[in-house]
Amino acid sequence: MMKARTAALFISLFLMMVPLYGQSAEGDYMQIDYFYVQPEGLDQFMEQVQGFWLEVQKERFEENEITGWHLYRVRYQGNREKIYNFVSVTSATSLSAYEDLYGSAEPDPDSENGEGLMAWQLMKNIVHSELWRVRNSVLRDTSMSPSRFKVMDYMDVGLGREYEYRMFEDEVARPLHEERMNLNTMNAWELYELISPGGIRYGYNFATGNFYNNLANIEFGFTDELIRDSHPDVNMVEFFEAIFSTRDLVESSLWELVQFIE
Question: Between residues 87 and 116, which one has the greater pLDDT?
Fold first, then answer.
């Protein structure tokens, strides 16, 4: 009964909404690498980022191997059990782009090739890596520079609830985010589905990316005022029950952009 009421609510909300913005990265893949850089190694890490790593990613971008690369510093981490302070997001249209992430440079600490040594120095800081698929994506303005801040919300969606959750994000949450963009309080929003690793013990299988230029704007999400302005007849209790019944928000982290190619 609850699932039927939830689906009915999603459909009724969707029929009352008209999307305002076009899609952007939907269908792309992402490799997310989580780094922990010791304080004493920060200067060396940033030198490698601005030199070797940036050049490698530029070359791959110009050869159409990847569609973009973003490096973030983690300002506020949502999981105190995992220690990382930088995040690299490499985007591509095919998973094959991640088979040779550092191009021709082999990550070998004993290599006589300087690039091989630098590749190893970068990779030794990786805590763990993930592959994702972009399931939905919308930008306020496709000509804008990348946003300074990204809030990454990790979701645990129960088995058998994946379609229902995606329907909520696609048909209910996205138009509300578009309204936030219309108010100039949000730059972009994306929905991600985890490809690998996974399993019931991993902790999450979906995520959303929320992009902002101003830190003050992250405070305002699905407020009652925003929802009622768009849907004055919506039952607020049922609306939030529908949200909480489809997923658990298990982590929320705030990242700040350091370097990018797109």
Answer: 87
